[in-house]
C-alpha cells in the first residue's frame, strides 16, 4: 500500500507503516524523516476518507491538530528573534484589554507554557463561526482565569488559538497563519498551512472516527474514590486532576460536533492551536531545518541562541488538565517525555527533541543532538489508550535505526 521512498537503514519504518495500513488500523497516513538535512524517509499510503475511493498521495494535506502549536511556537520565536517580544513582559503591555479580572499580572511566558490559567471559556465557548475571531478574543479578554496566572500548568488545548494568536497579532500586525505563510512556508517551500484556501481544501484528507474531545481521556475515574494515603505523588496529581474537571473545561466538546474538523468553516479559519494542515514531508523539513543549524539554502529561519532558549524546559507540570502528568514545555513546544514508557496515551519524545503531538495521533519533532527530524500524520483517530500507538512504534524504530 505504500508509495514514496525510504533509505534501507530505515526499512523498519516502512514495514511498520505498511502493516498498520494493511491491517486497517490506520486509514491513511504518512511518515517522513530528515537526517543531516536530507530527506531519508517519505512514505505515504492508504485512503483520504472512509469511502476508500481516493488514495492518499504525496500532496495530501491533513489536519494535525495540536502539532500546530509547535509551528506557532516557531513563529513566536521569530518575534523574539527580532526583539519584538519579551517573554517576561506582561501580556497587557502588548494587549491592554487583556489586563483585567485577575489577569493583570499575566506574563507572556505564562501563555507560552500553559500557565495562564485560561484553559477554557468560563461561560462556554462562543457559539459562532470559527472565522469569528474577535468574538472568541473578547470572551477571553473579559473572563477571570481558572487559576492564578503563573501558579500552575494546565494545557490550553483550544483557547491557545486566540490567546497566542491575538498576542501575536498585536505585536506583529499579521495573523500567525499569514506570517507563517509569508516568512517561513513560501521562502523555505514548506507544505503546511494554518487556514486553507479552496485549492488546498481539495487536497485534504478527512478526519475519520473523530470522537468528542472530552471522551479522549484514560478510563480511570475510579481513582477519585481512593484515599490519598494509598496513593503516591503522581497518582495524587492524577486524582486531583480528575476531581478538578479541568480536562472537561479545556477539551470542550461543543465545537467539534457535526463533523467539525472536516467542515469548510473549520478548515478556512486560522486557529494556531489546532487546525494546521500539512504533509509529513513538510513538517519533517520544517523541524529538520531547526535540527541542523536553523539554515537552509542560504536562508536563516532562526538564530540558534533563540532556539536554545525556546526549547529549554520552562514548565514541567504537574499538568492540571492532562491528568497531573509531568509534561515539559518550552515556548509552545512539547519536550522530552514518555521515553521509557509503553504507554500510548502519550507520545514519545526522546532527550533533546522538541515538537508537539496532536489529538488525532499526529506527531512532529526535531532533534538537534542527532540532527534529525520526524513527522507522522494520519486521519484516523484512535481511543485514548492507543492514541499514539503508530507514531510511538515508528519513533522507537527510528531511534533503534540510528543507535
Low-confidence stretches: none
Strand order of the largest sheet: 1-3-2-11-10-9
CATH topology: Beta-lactamase
Helix content: 25-40%
How many domain units? 1
Give the class-level CATH name.
Alpha Beta
What's the architecture, going by CATH?
3-Layer(aba) Sandwich
H/E element order: EHEEEHHHHHHEHHHHEHEEHEEEH
Cα Rg: 20 Å
How many β-strands, per DSSP?
A: 11
Roughly what fraction of the amino acids lie in strands?
5-15%
Structural class: alpha+beta
Shape summary = globular
CATH 4th-level superfamily:
DD-peptidase/beta-lactamase superfamily
Key structural traits:
single chain, 403 residues, alpha+beta, Beta-lactamase, 11 strands, 13% strand, globular
Structure description:
With 403 residues, the protein is of the alpha+beta class. It has helices spanning 11-22, 67-81, 91-94, 108-112, 133-142, 160-172, 176-188, 198-201, 233-244, 246-250, 264-268, 280-291, 304-310, 389-402, and strands at 2-6, 28-35, 38-46, 62-63, 192-194, 276-278, 295-296, 299-300, 353-357, 363-367, 372-378. The strands form three sheets. A six-stranded antiparallel sheet has the order 1-3-2-11-10-9, with helices on both faces. α1 (11-22) runs antiparallel to α14 (389-402) and α2 (67-81) packs parallel to α6. The two termini are 28 Å apart. The model has no long low-confidence stretch (mean pLDDT 91).
Explain briefly what this protein structure is.
The chain has 403 residues and is α+β, with helices and mostly antiparallel strands.
Fold blueprint:
Blueprint: E1 2-6, H1 11-22, E2 28-35, E3 38-46, E4 62-63, H2 67-81, H3 91-94, H4 108-112, H5 133-142, H6 160-172, H7 176-188, E5 192-194, H8 198-201, H9 233-244, H10 246-250, H11 264-268, E6 276-278, H12 280-291, E7 295-296, E8 299-300, H13 304-310, E9 353-357, E10 363-367, E11 372-378, H14 389-402
Antiparallel strand pairs: 1-3, 2-3, 2-11, 4-6, 5-6, 7-8, 9-10, 10-11
Amino acid at each position: 500500500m505504500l508509495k514514496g521512498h525510504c533509505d534501507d537503514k530505515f526499512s523498519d519504518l516502512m514495514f511498520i507503516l505498511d502493516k498498520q495500513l494493511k491491517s486497517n488500523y490506520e486509514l491513511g497516513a504518512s511518515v517522513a524523516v530528515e537526517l543531516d538535512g536530507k530527506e531519508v524517509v517519505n512514505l505515504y499510503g492508504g485512503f483520504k476518507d472512509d469511502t476508500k475511493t481516493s488514495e492518499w498521495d504525496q500532496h495530501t494535506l491533513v489536519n494535525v491538530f495540536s502539532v500546530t502549536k509547535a509551528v506557532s511556537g516557531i513563529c513566536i520565536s521569530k518575534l523574539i528573534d527580532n526583539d519584538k517580544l519579551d517573554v517576561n513582559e506582561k501580556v497587557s503591555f502588548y494587549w491592554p484589554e487583556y489586563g483585567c479580572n485577575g489577569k493583570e499580572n499575566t506574563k507572556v511566558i505564562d501563555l507560552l507554557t500553559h500557565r495562564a490559567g485560561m484553559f477554557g471559556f468560563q461561560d462556554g465557548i462562543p457559539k459562532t463561526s470559527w472565522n469569528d475571531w474577535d468574538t472568541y478574543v473578547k470572551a477571553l479578554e473579559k473572563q477571570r482565569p481558572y487559576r492564578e496566572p503563573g501558579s500552575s500548568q494546565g494545557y490550553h488545548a483550544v483557547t491557545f488559538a486566540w490567546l497566542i494568536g491575538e498576542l501575536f497579532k498585536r505585536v506583529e500586525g499579521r495573523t500567525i497563519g499569514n506570517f507563517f505563510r509569508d516568512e517561513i512556508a513560501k521562502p523555505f517551500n514548506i507544505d503546511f498551512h494554518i487556514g486553507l484556501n479552496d485549492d488546498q481544501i481539495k487536497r485534504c484528507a478527512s478526519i475519520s472516527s473523530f470522537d468528542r474531545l472530552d471522551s479522549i481521556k484514560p478510563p480511570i475515574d475510579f481513582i477519585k474514590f481512593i484515599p490519598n494515603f494509598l496513593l503516591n505523588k503522581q497518582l495524587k496529581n492524577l486524582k486531583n486532576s480528575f476531581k478538578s474537571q479541568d480536562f472537561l473545561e479545556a477539551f470542550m466538546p461543543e465545537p467539534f460536533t457535526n463533523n467539525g474538523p472536516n467542515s469548510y468553516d473549520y478548515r478556512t479559519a486560522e486557529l494556531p492551536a489546532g487546525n494546521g494542515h500539512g504533509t509529513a514531508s513538510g513538517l519533517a523539513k520544517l523541524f529538520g531545518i531547526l535540527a541542523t543549524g536553523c539554515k537552509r539554502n542560504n536562508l536563516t529561519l532562526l538564530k540558534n541562541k533563540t532556539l536554545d532558549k525556546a526549547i529549554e524546559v520552562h514548565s514541567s507540570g504537574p499538568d492540571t488538565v492532562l491528568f497531573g502528568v509531568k509534561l515539559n514545555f518550552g515556548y509552545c513546544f512539547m519536550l522530552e517525555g514518555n521515553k521509557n514508557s509503553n504507554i500510548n496515551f502519550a507520545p514519545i519524545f526522546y532527550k533533546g527533541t522538541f515538537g508537539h503531538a496532536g489529538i488525532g495521533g499526529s506527531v512532529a519533532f526535531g532533534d538537534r543532538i542527532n540532527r534529525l527530524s520526524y513527522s507522522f500524520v494520519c486521519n484516523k483517530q484512535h481511543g485514548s489508550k492507543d492514541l499514539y500507538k503508530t507514531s510511538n512504534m515508528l519513533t522507537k524504530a527510528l531511534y533503534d535505526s540510528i543507535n
